[in-house]
Amino acid sequence: MSVPAPVPHLKRSLRRFDIMAMGVAAVISFDVIGQIAAGGGQAVTWIAVLAVTFLLPYALVFAETGAAFPQEGGPYVWVEVAFGRPAAVLTTMFYWVTNPVWLGGSLVFVAAAAWDGFVLRLGSGTVADYAFKLAFIWAAILTAVVSLRRGKWITTAGAGAKVLALSFFTGTAVAYGIQHGFRGLQGAGFSPTGVGFLALVPVLLFAFVGFEAPNAAGDEMLAPQRDVPVAIGVSGTIATCCYLLPVLAILSAAPPGRVTGVGGFMDAARLVFGIYGDGREPVLTFVAVLFVVALLTQGSAWMIVADRMQAMAAADGGFFSRGLGAFHPRLGTPVRMNLLSGVTATVFMAAAMNLAKGDASAVFGVVLTVAITTLLLSYLAVVPSLLALRLRHREVPRPYQVPFGTRGFTVATLLVYCWIVLGSWVALFPGTLERLFGLPYDFRAVWGVSRLSFEAFTLGTVALLLAVAAAGYLTQRRRTRPRNEERATGPAR
């Protein structure tokens, strides 16, 4: 078995708690809580279903693989060893680009909406609006540039801010319900439906994936074989609670139809914080600032791991120039890849601002779907690579193993893969399965844009990424071929 060469300048600094905090910071997505709650009571039902049928087997197979293959680059290394460099390069491209797209087109919009509504007026499309979004993007990038020994405390603070804000909100919502009655739950409708299922599946999968992300910094962990399985188990449990309880709280307080994707959490907070009387506005402002900080550190946590994966692909000869894979000798971070992510996020933010002429809700929904699509598409290769590694490299020690051995691992992997395939299709071609099964679906009412605009943005993004990944791989291959031929034939006489 051949794996990419180890990266110099890296220092082992990630303990079990750090890995767990990084997983919580990356996976718990404030921006999708409102989107999930907009699905009504059946969102709670589907969260419970996916927690058992998707998250549990997902955590099991990634915990085993992450402990057995703890090299820097994580999923890039797994796919390369299983299926070769071209597949790994393409997979990593989709995995990596999800994060600047998400940062520049989803997280920044939710953060700006919260800041505009509860802290300081920004307006829409104004100089202040652009300035805030640029500052947000580049603050997230800069926190990924600093050494991981220091940067891990930023992601840990973000994880703490998320759990604190969600716990405070949930507790307040319970108090509000006791005082005013849990009227929202009466009309929430917990019975699952086909329309609700197809609408929620991509968002819920996006919310639950990513616990393997800290493995991208595998060579910076102190004891990955021992710590990764425990960290994935703990962070998965925390994430399930941090989705299920706040969604229930939002539904209990907010009247049906009032929950929106872009403003769901803070709009519900405005309502339930009414129990604090004259203190509501200061508390709302504090929670809004905490909310924005949590979003910022969420973006930086993903930049820390995704940029390392893409840097490993570049250093391994799979993305334009090996220089993009260089790690800073003092900081131990892929600074050039971090900066490339910042530029990509900025470009995508500018494109998203013009997508729906300032309609933040429409922009948010479409761009979030782009991020969901690109991330889920990457798992179409990552998940099978886990099974391939299990079957082809039995000699590799596995400190943790999925129950029932290879059979249990195979069943869990196939179950996860079926969910990923379904989510990828629904995200990329919304409304097609509804039409196939005769379910009602009004595209413009759901997305706020025409199908042509939607598909141009989503399919156009996917096509562009395929072209960039192919160009990056072929460019580097042409550069290295003359050197390889010279080594094979010797110097010319």
UniProtKB/TrEMBL annotation:
Q: How does it sit in the membrane?
A: Multi-pass membrane protein
Provide the protein name. Answer: Putative amino acid transporter
Q: Which organism is it from?
A: Streptomyces lydicamycinicus
Membrane-spanning regions, if any? 19-37, 43-63, 102-123, 130-148, 154-178, 190-211, 231-252, 283-305, 337-356, 362-389, 409-432, 452-474
Say yes or no: keyword 4Fe-4S present.
Answer: no
Q: Name one GO molecular function term.
A: transmembrane transporter activity
Subcellular location(s) per record = Cell membrane
Domain of life from the UniProt record? Bacteria
Q: Does the keyword Membrane apply?
A: yes
